Every structure is written in C-alpha cells, then in structure tokens.
C-alpha cells in the first residue's frame, strides 16, 4: 500500500488505514474541531452588520465549549452490530466510486451493507493523480484522497468494509452467497460494482520487471522516479493525465502511442504537447523492456516502417485501457461482447435482487461521477426491491 506522509514522501507496506480517526490531532493534542468557529460572513468573529449578503446569510457559529472534544466511542457512527458479521440486507462487491456511493446510500437506509472491497481497494481512481472534474472540488483533488473520503463517509454511516477479493458466487437462491478468502458472505441483495482493471502490453519483459520500473499507477509509484527519464504508453486521457502528473518527478517523460492520432480530449492533448518536459512519439510501440534487475531502456518499434531503436529509460508506465472485472459473474449474468455486464431496467441484472453499478457495465462514459451516480441508483433500487419483497422496512424519505 502506498502512503504519503506529512512530507509528501511515499511509504509502502505499512498498516495504517486510509482514514484518520484522530480528526487530525497530532501527538495527543487538541482536536482542530475543539472550540471551532464557523464564520460564513467573512469577518473575524461574526457576520458583518449591514454588509454584503453571503450565500449563507452571514451566519456565524461560535462554540462556547472546551478546547478539546471528549473522546467518542470507537467504531463507525450508526453501526452497533458485530464487526465481523457475514450476513446483510445488501452485499456490495467493489469499492470504487460506485461501490462506496452505494454503501453510503444503503447504510443511510439502515440496510447495514457489507462491502467486499478487494485486496487493492479504491478502484481506478487510486491510479489517478489530479481529479479536476469531480463536483465539489474547485481546485481538484488527488484520486486516492477522494476515495479515502468516500470510504470514511461510508464507514461513518455503518458500512462494514472488508479488503478481500471474492473467489466465487452462487446466485441460484436467496440469500445470495459470495465466498472471499475462505469466508462465506450472504446477502438478501447484491450490488456488483467491481469496475475494470488496467490492461498490460503482455510482454514477457514487462511482466518480469513489474515493480522494478514497470507500473500501471503513476500516483502510486511516480515518487520513486525523481529526476529520471521515463515513458508512458497510451493515447487516451488517462495516459496524458499520467504523463503530466509524472513531470512533477521525472526529468523527462516520453509519451508513446502506436497510432498517429489520439483518443484523448483536446484540452489534454494541448496540455501534453505544450508541456516542456513531455516528448510525444506517435506510431511507436514498445517491442521489449530492456534490463535484468530493473528497467534500463526500451526497444521501440515504428508501427509504420517496422524499424526498431533502443532508447535509454528508467521507468515505464502503462495506460492503455481496462478489462471489466466480470469473470466470476459470467456464468450467472449477461455479459456483452467485451465482457461487460449488461444491465436491464436501469441497474437490474437478469436475476432479481442482483444489481449492477459503475464501470463494470459502463464502457461509454467511465467517469467517477457517473459511477457514483450508478451506485446511488443501485442502492435505491436495491432498497425498494427489498421493501417490495418484504425483506426490509422502508427507512428513508423519498428524497433520500
């Protein structure tokens, strides 16, 4: 697991969680929320009298309480059950924007969801640097930070999140059964939000040097390539986002694309071509990754002429697309020609009680905000279906 410390340095393989249950207090000091003043009027203490109207009407909230907040009971707010429970009204598979949004909505409906998050939780946003198009963050936000916030929010309302990969499922009868790392989980309904995984070049040298200079996660591994010359393979927005992000560390970034045109948006193409630290190579593919113990160079092939050349390089990042994570469901649910799950009537699958959300079925938009919207819809559909089957009582207002 990659962790960024206070100095923004990368640290691997520690056991810290993605959430901070100290609310930011350092060394046992006072919580930053102690005696907090919220001044929406802009003045130092209270809303200015007769001043310009603010969106919140010049409201000022000043605490008279002590500087420190009394200790609160451990555990997520709203959840009082066994933290090791394996049965639930809603079993959610996947922990990207779709899965965690579904968890938030299901937990607020008092369905006490269990989220099987995977051994590398967080979805594809864990591989994304600056997220600039997710509403609510005018200055952008790092993908891993956004996912940590989503997870903390889901846990706050009572979701149980387990970082395990699933092995097999049985959707033949209710409760539906899912096995993960030797444990059987049961749910009266299931929301599948397993997303899609990064594709690789399928070169022997690429596989051999994974973790030794070859990566599919610029956010995870970019730090380790300070002042080094590296390459990114791909022609879409993700590839260009990674190339731009890696310029924060690398001395130079080569963007390699096997065609002469790009699938990326115009704004990303312009940003990439105009960046002084990025060199773009079109009609170029990687024939071999050079090096024994680590990446030392690339053998590049011109896709138009077949000519090959070697280029010294210390790192290679792959950003060429995704494969839907649907293999375990293929015998139970409908899949399309590309392997994506097929949703019927919004988020329903062909099995009553099994719902689909996010990139596991959406290969058109593939955006965090659309995946989150899918998760919301799937949770609402699951709650209403459970109610119609007499398996859960109506808990929420119409407006959620």
In short:
Helices cover 18% and strands 24% of the residues. It is α/β, with parallel strands linked by helices and 400 residues long.
Please tag this protein with its features.
single chain, 400 residues, alpha/beta, FAD/NAD(P)-binding domain, 2 domains, seven-stranded mixed beta sheet, five-stranded parallel beta sheet, disordered N terminus
Explained architecture:
With 400 residues, this protein is α/β, with parallel strands linked by helices. It has 2 domains: 18-197 and 322-400, FAD/NAD(P)-binding domain, CATH 3.50.50; 204-318, FAD/NAD(P)-binding domain. It is 18% helix and 24% strand. It has 7 helices and 23 strands. Strands 5, 6, 9, 10, 11, 12 and 23 form a 7-stranded mixed sheet that branches. Strands 14-21-15-16-17 form a 5-stranded parallel sheet, with helices on one face. Strand 11 and strand 12 form a beta hairpin. Helix 1 packs parallel to helix 7. The two termini are 35 Å apart. 37% of the residues are buried.
Please count the beta strands (DSSP E, at least 2 residues each).
23
Per the CATH scheme, the topology name of the largest domain is: FAD/NAD(P)-binding domain
Which stretches are low in confidence, meaning pLDDT under 50 for 5 or more residues running? 1-82
Largest sheet: 7 strands, mixed
Query: What is the SS-derived class?
Result: alpha/beta
Which CATH-level-2 architecture of the largest domain?
3-Layer(bba) Sandwich
Total helical segments: 7
Distance, first to last CA: 35 Å
Shape, per Cα inertia axes:
elongated
Name of the CATH first level of the largest domain: Alpha Beta
Report the helical percentage. 10-25%
Order of helices and strands: EEEEEHEEEHEEEEEHEHEHEHEEEEEEEH
CATH superfamily of the largest domain: FAD/NAD(P)-binding domain
């Amino acid at each position: 697991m990659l962790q960024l410390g206070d100095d923004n340095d990368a640290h691997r393989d520690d056991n810290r969680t993605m959430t901070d249950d100290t609310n930011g207090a350092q060394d046992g000091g006072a919580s930053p929320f102690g005696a907090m003043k919220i001044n929406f009027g802009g003045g130092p203490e209270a809303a200015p009298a007769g001043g310009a109207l603010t969106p919140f009407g010049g409201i000022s909230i000043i605490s008279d309480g002590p500087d420190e907040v009394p200790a609160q009971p451990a555990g997520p707010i709203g959840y009082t059950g066994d933290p090791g429970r394996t049965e639930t009204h809603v079993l959610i598979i996947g922990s990207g924007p779709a899965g965690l949004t579904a968890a938030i909505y299901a937990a607020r409906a008092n369905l006490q969801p269990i989220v099987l998050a995977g051994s590398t939780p967080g979805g594809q946003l864990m591989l994304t640097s600056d997220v600039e198009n997710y509403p609510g963050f005018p200055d952008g936000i790092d993908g891993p930070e956004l996912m940590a916030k989503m997870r903390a929010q889901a846990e706050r309302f009572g979701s149980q999140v387990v970082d395990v990969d699933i092995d097999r499922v049985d959707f033949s009868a209710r409760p539906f059964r899912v096995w993960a790392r030797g444990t059987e989980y049961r749910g009266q309904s299931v929301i599948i939000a397993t997303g899609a995984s990064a594709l690789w070049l399928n070169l022997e040298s690429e596989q051999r040097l994974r973790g030794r200079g070859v990566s599919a996660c610029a956010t995870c591994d970019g730090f380790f390539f300070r002042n080094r010359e590296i390459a990114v393979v791909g022609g879409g927005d993700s590839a260009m986002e990674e190339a731009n992000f890696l310029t924060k560390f690398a001395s130079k970034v080569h963007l390699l694309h096997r065609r002469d045109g790009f699938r990326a948006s115009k704004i990303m193409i312009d940003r990439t071509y105009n960046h002084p630290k990025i060199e773009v190579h079109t009609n170029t593919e990687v024939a071999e990754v050079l090096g024994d113990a680590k990446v030392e160079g690339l053998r590049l092939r011109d896709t138009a002429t077949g000519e090959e050349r070697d280029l010294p390089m210390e790192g290679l990042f792959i950003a060429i697309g995704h494969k839907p994570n649907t293999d375990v469901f293929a015998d139970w649910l409908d899949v399309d020609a590309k392997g994506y799950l097929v949703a019927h009537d919004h988020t329903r699958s062909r099995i009553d009680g099994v719902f689909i959300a996010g990139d596991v079925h959406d290969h058109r938009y593939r955006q965090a905000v659309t995946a989150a919207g899918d998760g919301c819809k799937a949770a609402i559909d699951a709650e209403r279906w459970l109610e119609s089957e007499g398996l859960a009582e109506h808990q929420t207002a119409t407006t959620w």
